[in-house]
Amino acid sequence: MAERNTVLTKEDIGFDIKVTWLAISRMFSPQAAEHNMTVTMGFVLLNIDRERGTPATKIAPILGMEPRSLTRLIKKMVEGGLVVRRPDPEDRRSIRIFLTDKGFNKKLVTKQSIEFFNMAVRERLSDEELSSFFGVLDKIHQVIKEKTK
Q1: CB of 128 closer than 8 Å to CB of 84
Q2: In what helix (H) or strand (E) does residue 84 lie, and over which residues does it extend?
Q3: What is the rounded distance in angstroms from the CA atom of residue 2 to the CA atom of residue 97?
Q4: Per DSSP, what are the bridge partners of residue 84?
Q5: How far, in Å, CA of 10 to CA of 15, rounded?
C-alpha cells in the first residue's frame, strides 16, 4: 500500500471546513474587536434567550465548545458586563446566563454582521445549492457524532 501524502489538500473535508471557518472568523474578528468582543463571544450572545436566559449547560453543546472553555469565556463576559449568572428558578442547582442591556446591544450588532454575511452568501448561491450545503453539513455532523461516541 502506498504511503498517503500527509499534506492536507482541498480534497480533505476537514481541511476545507477549517480553512473556511478561519476565513470567516478573520472576517468577523475586526468587527468584534471594535466592540471589545471576540467572535466566539458574539456566538454565545446569539444563543442566550433575552427573557428566560439560557442554562449554561446548553450553550457549550450548541457551539461545540468544551464546558471548561465556555466557563472561562462566560467569566470574561460577566467581567465585561455582557451577561450575568443567576440561579435557575426551577432548579436552584442550575445556573442560567442572562444578557445585560450591554450584552443585548452587542447581540444586535453581532446579529446584524451575521445577517449581512448570510445575505452576501445567499446572493451567490441558489436555494438548491444552499439546501444541498446544509444537507451535507447535517450528514457531516452525524458522522462526527457516530465517531465520537
Answers
A1: no
A2: strand 83-87
A3: 52
A4: 98
A5: 7
Select from 141, 120, 144, 142 the least CA-distant residue to 130.
120
Provide the pLDDT confidence category of residue 4 given band limits of 50, 70 and 90: low
CA distances from 138 to 37, 134, 148 (A): 29, 6, 15
pLDDT tens figures, 61-81: 999 899 899 999 999 999 999
Give the position of cell 465556555.
70
Laid out side by side, the sheet with 95-99 consists of: 54-55, 95-99, 83-87
CA 50, CA 120: separation in Å to the nearest integer?
A: 27
Grid cell 450572545 is found at 45
